[in-house]
Write a sequence for this structure.
């Protein structure tokens, strides 16, 4: 990858870019590929780049110069080196005409079933069962869970508002099995030596599960959240409720899932059916 970054640098030098911008773009690409060093280039999807930039923006501060430059650098790198235009904005937001990949309920079942490690199984199951972002689940603490009420509190962030979600009954035994095996103390999910779980490590676990389940799709961990949203709509959930569950600020953000959902109108029940007339 180093030789490609060198070629990218030479192209920028021949263009209109000054030395300061070139240095910033070059550094952004190095950091980006260090983050995804365990993934082959073919597995770095638009959605994965989008998630990376959104998390970077959240860490650096929305609208920060560093996150803006990283977005511009990565988009330009893919265009100049791979002749590929990413379907994202420099902020990391997906463009409206770029629909995300979605897994079927059967495929989700297969992915979770092939995970033998109780921590990995609980992590992926929690993300899908609650429709969480990876950045949400990695900051969850044990104290965020109310076992008696079967609720979990998702802390607020710069991109999503905090919310309280109901824990599905089928998720509870999976979490209990994880607790009995790994005995977490503060964070709900921790990496090696008690440190914060690396997003890159979680993505790698997901890709391995995808291969083991023999699912040939350009899916990432965030695909679990997309799939949850689509499956909820297909089961008749009101989009306003889904918006609150996902923590979206605007209904327009949630409405993209209508384009992906296969809703059978024949199965939707009219309230007229319940009138005693």
């Amino acid at each position: 990858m180093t030789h490609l970054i060198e070629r990218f640098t030479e192209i920028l030098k021949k263009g209109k870019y000054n030395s300061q911008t070139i240095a910033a773009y070059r550094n952004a690409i190095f950091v980006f590929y260090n983050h995804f060093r365990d993934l082959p280039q073919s597995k770095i999807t638009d959605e994965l780049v989008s998630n990376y930039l959104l998390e970077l923006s959240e860490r650096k501060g929305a609208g920060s110069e560093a996150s803006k430059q990283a977005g511009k650098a990565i988009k330009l790198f893919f265009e100049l080196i791979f002749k590929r235009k990413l379907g994202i904005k420099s902020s990391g937001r997906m463009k409206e005409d770029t629909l995300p990949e979605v897994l079927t309920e059967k495929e989700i079942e297969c992915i979770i079933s092939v995970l033998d490690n109780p921590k990995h199984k609980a992590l992926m199951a929690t993300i899908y069962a609650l429709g969480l972002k990876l950045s949400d689940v990695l900051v969850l603490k044990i104290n965020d869970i109310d076992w008696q009420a079967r609720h979990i509190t998702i802390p607020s962030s710069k991109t999503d508002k905090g919310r309280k979600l109901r824990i599905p009954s089928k998720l509870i035994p999976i979490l209990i099995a994880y607790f009995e095996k790994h005995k977490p103390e503060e964070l709900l999910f921790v990496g090696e030596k008690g440190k914060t779980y690396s997003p890159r490590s979680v993505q790698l676990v997901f890709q391995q599960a995808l291969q083991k389940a023999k699912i040939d799709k350009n899916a990432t961990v965030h695909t679990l959240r997309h799939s949850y949203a689509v499956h909820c709509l297909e089961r008749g959930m009101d989009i306003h409720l889904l918006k609150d569950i996902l923590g979206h600020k605007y209904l327009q953000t949630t409405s993209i899932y209508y384009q992906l959902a296969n809703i059978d109108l024949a199965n939707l029940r009219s309230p007229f059916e319940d009138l005693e007339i």
The chain has a mean pLDDT of 86. The domain at 2-81 is CATH 1.10.150.130 (DNA polymerase; domain 1).
